Amino acid sequence: MLASLRFTLTRRPPLRPLNTKARHSLQVRTMALATGPNAKPPLIPFSSRLETGRALALDVWSIYNAANLPADCINLGQGYMNFPPPQWVRDAATEALNNVASNHYSHPKGRIRLREAIREYYSPQFPHLGRPLDVENEILVSSGANEGQYACWTAFLEPGDEVILFEPFFDQYLPSITFNAGVPVYVPLHPPSVSETEPTSDDWKLDFDELERAVTPKTKMIVVNTPHNPVGKVFTREELEKIAEVAKKHNLLVMADEVYETLTYDGKEHVRIANLPGMWERTVTVGSAGKMFAATGWRVGWLIGPPDIIRPTLAATTRIVFCTNSPLQEAAAAGLERAAEFQFFDKTVKEYAERRDILVNAFKKLGLQYSLPEGGYFVLLDISKVKVPEDYPYPDTLKGRGKDFRAAWFIAQEIGVSTIPVSEFYCEGHQGIGERFIRFAFCKDYDLLRRAAERLQKLKEYL
């Protein structure tokens, strides 16, 4: 099947600067599309970088916003939890707020307590080093994983440098790359066939010939997201070894987005590409306290890598945010320090697997194909068999969008469960791949998921 599927590799050409008059005219049209035909033109033209990376486009999060959906709609679209961080982490946050020193500026590298906690937690996970991580030169705390990635792109991208993204991709990558004058190049993961029985996220395959063809003299970096959002794929050692060979052959930097690292199921091994031979020197590993401790709004993340990557990224992050919020760094440190004491990550995996199964069993009852995720907290449902009414009163914001956008809207309005269309995570040339799927988040409490599963059975009327 895979051999018969070939997708055109897509790269966005570097933008050519417009003159002020032409740019102002474009901005008037752009704002009208985003806010309506009666929108006033901007008095002062804004930067052309905002016209890249879909930054001004009406994004999927705005379309499937609570304000646009029924009041009682169950939100399984966005990946935030509806339960709090563990008590001992919240207690540490309270303690930090009551401490004068932890309410003031931190070092741009991150608070020393958190960097030391990262060192103690992660050093055994990088055994090839044969030593502890260096808290001064190999660890950088960031304002969420997103800001850490942005700072790394700021530090390393020259205008026109290409960054390879595996589709579907986390949508924040795109503007972060283009804002820094980079050019995204898209290599799709090939989904399982419609006829395949009980596929898993592992059945989404990367064509390594396509990956090799995507590399040009301008290629600077590859982004590897494992466990993967939104597919839930946990890249195997063999797959990562092949990616590593491409990176070494062409002298590429690898950004290993591993924010879902503590959420792998069914005994699946999370392999760190930085541990493979010759890869530590060219890999930055991205982590997130928000994903680990159900504290996504805290915006505390970190980067781990060699000094040659961390040092210039530190220079960038110092000028972007200067430092990350201090009290919640202390709380994140407490989370890492005491996780083993509470067997927290083992319990979390068990609970998330149970949550996953609530949704999966609902899909089984419907007889719909899904990709069983082996990591993360999203599951993709194949909507090929769902007969979405063409004459339904869809909003104008869905014009030109794929079937998955219409299906997600219809399901939210008529079934009462909000999801996210997966074609949003593809470039325009590959959106047809994603139209088969909608994404459900299962990082919710059991009761909410059970109610959603019950509602979803109404879909039988439309199969």
TrEMBL record:
Cofactor or coenzyme needed: pyridoxal 5'-phosphate
Any one GO cellular component localisation term in the record: mitochondrion
PROSITE patterns: AA_TRANSFER_CLASS_1
Key word Hydrolase present: no
Annotated Aminotransferase class I/classII large domain residues: 72-456
GO molecular function list: kynurenine-oxoglutarate transaminase activity; pyridoxal phosphate binding
Keywords: Aminotransferase, Pyridoxal phosphate, Transferase
Keyword Transferase: yes
Coiled coil: none
Origin superkingdom: Eukaryota
Pathway: Amino-acid degradation; L-kynurenine degradation; kynurenate from L-kynurenine: step 1/2
The family this protein is said to belong to: Belongs to the class-I pyridoxal-phosphate-dependent aminotransferase family.
Protein name (Swiss-Prot/TrEMBL): Aminotransferase class I/classII large domain-containing protein
